[in-house]
Amino acid sequence: DSALIDRAFRSTKSLAKDTTIDGKALNYEYVYMKRENTELYKGAVIRIVSDHTQDKEFVRRSLWNSVLIFLVTITIVIVLIYKKSKVITNPIKKLLNNVNRITAGNLNERADVEGNNEIARLSEKFNVMVSRLEDHYKNLEQKVKDRTAEISQKAAEIEEKNKNIEDSIRYAKRIQNAILPPDDYLQDTFQSFFILYKPKDIVSGDFYWAHKSGDERMFAVVDCTGHGVPGAFMSIVGNDQLNYAVNVKGANNPGDIMNYLNEGVRHALRQRSGESSVRDGMDMTLISINYKTMKLNYAGAYNPVYVFRNQELIELAVDRFAVGGFIDEELHQFENRVFDLQEGDMIYIFSDGYVDQFGGPRGKKLKPKRFRAILESVHQSKPIDQKEMLDQSLLDWMGDDIEQVDDVLLVGFKL
């Protein structure tokens, strides 16, 4: 204490000190008492001792009571908030569960309506919406059933009609096959030959025709406009006109026969340029082989004649216009041409189906150059073997993914 008293006396200021003695909280305060200085008395310092033990205990207890009250209050508030949130969230959860069940297809679900608040009103509106949705669903389901039954009936009718159409087309195929020259007639007429005939559909727009007149052996490969049923109708017209030309008109060389055919097709179809934009007609090649004189008479509309001799290809050109067309157009005349044959020659006549077939690695047309290369690779084989090799070459070119695009007709004669 003497040190603090001395400091207070020297500084002329009051000083304080807190300390604990025997468990008591004591406060020592040293107050400097200023007086007028004399020789005997220069001033005084008073020490005041205060016991704050009870005050601190009171403050401590008050603090703990406040903390306890705060914690209890917070707990009560949390419990009240939790209960209130349950009152709000439980109906929402139930409503959400109902929505999930409804979206899963159960339209019998309804939300529970509890209380008189916004959630309750929302649940009521939800139930109304679900009821309307259920009604619409039932109506739609009935319409679907009715429409399904109607579609099934229509499908059955279409299937029956398709069957009738297919039966009719197959019967038409029998008729078309009947107009083609019989195999035994061809065997008696020509020495060594093959016919590769691959219609795209059940019936074909390509057909072949044969006729024997004295020493002349005639054969035609005809490619009518279109394929399938339209082409098949055209093939019947073409076959009738060819028979009319030789049997009624007495035409005896390919040029004359094709001129009669040209005129007959134009009048049979009765087309005029102002009435239609479709030019129905035929591309064809007609040859006449005389095995005694070794002469080849031929005429053609676009499609040439190929002759392989001594491993070299000879292309016999034909006229560059088709059979048929419009009645009011100028009637072109087909030229009859003659070519001298030699023993060992291989003659090919064909439609454009083989050449125009898509395939290969790039899905492009086979084209004449590749076609001639294929013929060159097989022309020395027997005709029956050539047919198989040419058919396989076409299948290889098409591959597994590309369908046949046109009727294919390729005929070869070996001398």
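Second entry:
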Amino acid sequence: MPSGLVDVRWVGRFGASNPRGFVVGAGREMIAPSTNTTPAAAAELPRETVMNGRTSANQANWFRFDAAVGERVQVELQTRELDSRLDPIVSVGDTNGRTLQTSRRGTLEFTAGQSGSYRLQVRDSTYRGGEDFVFRLMLTVAPHVDFALPNVLRAGETNRVTLYGRNLPGAKPSPVTGPDGRTVDEIEAEILTPPDAGAFLVEGMAKPASVFLAGGNLSWRWTNAVGVSNPIWFATTTNTIWTSTTNGVMPVAPPGEFSGVFPRRGERSGVTFEAKKGEVLWLELSADRLGWPCDPSAIVQRERKTKGDAGETLYADVLELSDSEANLGGTEFNTYTRDAAARFEAPEDGRYRVLVRDLFHTGPKSPQYPYRLSLRREAPDFALVAVPVQPVKQNDNDRNIYPITPFLRQGETTPVKVVAFRRDGFGGEIELSATNLPVGITAAATRIPPGQNTGFVLLTSAEAGAATSAVPWKIVGRATTPAGEMTRMAPLATVTGLVPDFNEQAVVARLAREPLLSVSAVEFAPVTVTPLEDKTWEIATNGKLVLPVSIVRRSDFNAAFSLKPAGRVELDKLKPASIPEKATNATLEFELAEAKLPEGRGLWWLQGTIAGKYRNNPEALAEAETELKAAEQALAAATDADKPALETRKKEAEERKKSAEERAKPRDVTWMIYSQPFFVKTVPASPPLPPSPQ
């Protein structure tokens, strides 16, 4: 297996687990001891060796290394790549207990002030620890690149870039202040980019909203005689690219991509351009989605035709770019970003300028983080992400968020939410479909209505014949734009771990490197609800939906329950319809007038919950009972010489039966029911009936 980042999963009776980040190393690997929790017990940290460890609650991990005076080393700590909950603080100190340098970024550059032994401490910012607080630690002299400019490259060409970082052989000092508050070195390099950046790489995803950045992401490492650098990420474009790190604004001719660093206090950074009245550009400022702790802000100004009293150029504010407040993915895939975007339409002919700044870092010695400013012609487009639907909340205090991979039992239907990010004013309909489905699984074609950002794909497993499997699959979105038909894949989102309370613990989400769909041939849906007629139900927007359904109940799920339509946000207003205890057929009625539905055709389904008793793996209990019976029979017929071994076999069989009995005990559960989907066409409201004659 080649070195790099992969996803590790467990596959069992209930399908594939959530993915977990795992690193396939290219060099020496060690496991940190569990006893290095004091400076005196510090573990030796060899150069160019990865130390794998985890933190314990209320403790720190200590390591030691030797360095000669003037020697420069880089501390690299990986946590996010492993889906770790560790919020790391790394510090280097001397043997007297004095802290010499501290970093909260996972990287630390240290230059030894004198020859001798040093102590390195790794801990969580609030001294948390446990199985989920893992890390990979390395002490290295390999080059480390903080960032590169430009951060957008021309596709299919050799691009000349400037690398900013530490331990860069042949580099010269740079005036740019790096993320740790120190000036960084700079050196030029050449990068040959492919014609197409390909799929979005999870490793370069700083936060959920990063998925929606135009141009994808391309990973590149700088290699030299000293070693190989950390990966650097670039977007690609076919437009012109510009770069500047000096004080002032750069004249440009849109469309194009501008890369720079945020200015210090009293300085300016941005671009100036000419525009005709009515000319439209989309302006997008990115830094937060690139992984930098910034609050980007920009203002567009028009150069006035009149000068000031001292002959200076005057400007009038035209447009301000501020944070995007939209969270399209909900709690489990929060797409909020501090980055900014806006549509600019020139109010008159003239020269305009865009000034950018970082509202988080405004001091004269603040770190200078890189940013990306896109100035593009209006080109409506969209991007998609699939988000597994969370289980039903048990009560108002249930704030759990679960790491879910789509899983289907026999006879079960489950929805997968699809979130659409609409770019450059695209407001059209998006058709959704699923491909590469396992045997026995179907998906009804559905859509995201015009102007909306959320749709669903309904997956249904046959009541018999579906094989146990966990296979890669795809959700595809198609839409017609002014540029023609566009097809976009929807990568699958995942939560990196169980969150018991999203008000107290941050929900960390990313994309799965490979979307998996799991099917069970031994688990069955407790309840299957199916419309009795396979047709499109046509009904007035103020009419009544009368829907006959069949109900298949399995195991001990005979309680009464309620269902209501879903598939559009307006349907939330409808009152649920009740299904009596033990009923296997019902006719459900829903008054649609209160929903105020628009006209059109769409895919609906029914959803609700039912209380019942669930038995986990009763087949294992039956197997254990058969095994125990066989052991007892063998023991009864055994000779005295064989009895000791058969006594042991019988005892082990009894233990397995006892364990299977405990696991298979009926347990009270609340189960989420999704019916098989059906199409509804809403037509104009029926006129009111004339009043009855007196």
